[in-house]
Amino acid sequence: MFSYLRSKGELVNMSRFKMTRIALELNFVNHIIPIPSFAGFSYLGWILHRHGVSAGRATMAQIIRFAMMFLSFVSIIVISVIVLAFDNGINRTIIIISGSFIIAAIGSTFFLIYMIGNHNRLVAFSGWLTGIVNKIVYKLTRGKKRQILKLQIVEGFFTDLHQDYTEIRSDKKILIRPMLWAVLNNVLDVGLIAIAFLALGYWVNPATLAIAFGISSFAAIFAATPGGSGVYEAIMIAFLASAGIPADVAIAGTLLARATLFTGTILFGYLYYQLTINKYGKISDSTNL
Predict the structure, then answer these.
(1) DSSP 53
(2) Cα dist. 180→39, 185, 217 in Å?
(3) Band of residue 54 on the pLDDT scale cut at 50, 70, 90
(4) Is the separation of the CB atoms in 21 and 272 below 8 Å?
């Protein structure tokens, strides 16, 4: 995300320590607050607004993050399936699940492109979104709150998204560095899980872990639990068991990796998160849409 933003001339005076701090805060929010995908979008937009980044551009940075993560994982999973095919064969379940993930990831990416690529479509969506959200809020508050979203602000937000998308299409090289960071990020995440299993004295093919991690992470995005807890673990364990990993080993390795991740996230993220909240106040105190 920061690689993309700096390529657009944003955050040029921000130190790498500050960027790391914000990233740790974002990790904390994504792993602690329910519905992590929405929480992360809101929090990062709120923080970057303090540094002169518009809401639309901050959102585009996160869209690029997810798109690059998905596309890099598609490549990793394709390679993983090929590796497994040469390594004592591959069962039908893995092929079906991997294929479903690839279709879902590519489909999600093309849907985003479809929505952002047309300004008129975004304007129409802005009107629909503003109207329906305000109606829901009006009913929930029994008429006390007539408007929570303002059409002009929402349209401006989506216009920023469309402008960034247009600029990206004219200069696709801008996505090279974000893509490389996404690949490195995914490899290191899979490495953490592999180390957890090795700590238990059990070797699991990294190709199998890569597929399991990708599918679990994708499902966790839509889970209404902190960090996708429960959903992530259940899918990861079920997939590893279907791939021939003993159930007790799959459970122990998955829980060890997740516990390590959550512990590190809380220790490193909470401190900076709390300092930011103490400095700026809560998001709800500063947001006025």
Answers:
(1) -
(2) 25, 9, 19
(3) confident
(4) yes
Contact 14, 51 (CB under 8 A): yes
Range name among 130-134, 177-181, 233-237 with the lowest pLDDT average? 130-134
CA gap 236, 219 in Å, rounded: 10
Nearest to 27 by CA among 265, 192, 191, 263: 265
What is the C-alpha to C-alpha distance for residues 217 and 103, in angstroms, rounded to an integer?
A: 15
Q: Report the SS3 class of residue 247.
A: helix
Residues 207-229 pLDDT 10s: 889 888 888 887 777 766 766 77
CA-CA distance, 237 to 170, in Å (whole number)?
43
Q: What is the DSSP letter of 175?
A: G
How would you class 66 by CB atoms within 10 Å of its CB: exposed for 0-12, middle for 13-18, buried for 19 or more? buried
Q: Residue 227: left if φ>0, alpha if ψ -120 to 50, beta else—which one?
A: left
Place of tokens 């959903």: 231
In the structure encoding, which two tokens stand for residue 261, read together?
């991740």
pLDDT confidence bin for 287, thresholds 50/70/90: very low
Torsion of CA 198, 202, 206, 212, to 10 degrees: -110
Residue 137 scores a pLDDT above 80: no
Calculate mean pLDDT across residues 246-257: 92
- The helix/strand/coil state of 256 is helix
